[in-house]
């Protein structure tokens, strides 16, 4: 009998918590959205490889500009080389603003 009472109280608490937190979820808007992420690896027989990475983010709020305005690319400069083939900002009207070539430490 206690077990049945416990399950009934638990169900009521779950329903109440869902109802009380729903407005907070409805107001949430992410600062950015990951639209696309793609990694292509070309591995050679000798173990060497190349990797092409493509990331597409949509900035949804002013905070997203702060969060996504700069992207970090990690690599080991003693063992790897890094070449940035293209970097740009795609504006809401569909136009692109190219980013200048980035000087990498040697």
Describe this structure in words.
The chain is an alpha+beta fold. The chain has a domain at 29-98. The protein has 2 helices and 4 strands. It has helices at 2-27, 62-68; strands at residues 32-43, 49-59, 88-90, 96-98. It has a two-stranded antiparallel ribbon. A two-stranded antiparallel sheet has the order 3-4. The longest helix is centred in the first third of the chain and has 26 residues, at 2-27. The model has no long low-confidence stretch (mean pLDDT 79).
Write the layout of secondary structure elements.
Layout: H1 2-27, E1 32-43, E2 49-59, H2 62-68, E3 88-90, E4 96-98
Number of helices: 2
Q: Strand content of the residues, in percent?
A: 25-35%
Radius of gyration: 24 Å
User: Total number of β-strand segments?
Assistant: 4
Distance between the termini: 73 Å
Oligomer state equals single chain
Order of helices and strands: HEEHEE
Shape: flat
Strand order of the largest sheet: 1-2
The proportion of residues forming helix, as a percent range, comes to: 25-40%
Largest sheet: 2 strands, antiparallel
**Mean pLDDT over the residues:** 79
**Unreliable spans:** none
């Amino acid at each position: 009998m206690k077990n049945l009472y416990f399950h009934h109280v638990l169900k009521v608490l779950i329903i109440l918590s869902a109802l009380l937190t729903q407005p907070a979820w409805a107001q949430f808007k992410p600062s950015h959205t990951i639209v696309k992420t793609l990694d292509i690896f070309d591995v050679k027989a000798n173990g060497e490889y190349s990797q092409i990475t493509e990331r597409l983010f949509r900035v949804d709020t002013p905070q997203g500009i702060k969060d996504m305005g700069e992207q970090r690319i990690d690599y080991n400069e003693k063992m790897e080389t890094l070449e940035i083939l293209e970097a740009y900002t795609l504006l809401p009207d569909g136009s692109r603003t190219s980013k200048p070539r980035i000087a990498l430490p040697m």
